[in-house]
Amino acid sequence: xxxSTAINTAADFIAGRESFSPVPYYDVNGYAIGYGNHxxxxxxxxxxxxxxxxxxxxxxxxxxxxxxxxxxxxxxxTVPLTENQxxxxxxxxxxxxxxxxxxxxxxxxxAEPAKVAMQFQNTCVNSGGxxxxxxxxxxxxxxxxxxxxxxALPGAVVALFLLIGAWLLFAHK
Length: 173
Fold this sequence. Notes:
Layout: H1 3-17, E1 21-27, E2 30-34, H2 55-76, H3 83-96, H4 101-108, H5 113-120, E3 126-127, E4 130-131, H6 133-147, H7 155-171
């Protein structure tokens, strides 16, 4: 696995799902800036009084936390991952703050990628105690990225997963 490729893929994926804000804004659990970052590199929290940042500065902050999240994942995972699998898990952890024990145990058990991808749909899809459609859709995109991890899965399996994901998406509406 090429770690740099995984981080770049994760950062691009995250930036495509998080809105850029040059000024601090209140998010569900505190002030954030840039691409949804609640903290600066030194660990200090973003506050409403912080100065605006440029998009380049926001990208630096995103890259820093993508790297931190990827390193945390790699310290917990005991099986090899592909670049896309690490990128998908990095996005999940970036957005949720953690990877659940259920997800880690499934990965570390050597489960098939399709089974791990299905677990994304049960992970971090609530906000404020209620189901959140946007989070559910993001988990589906992360699951697809996880499945795009090389040629280990036949195309029919990927197609089946996409059909199941679409069914689950519409079943929750």
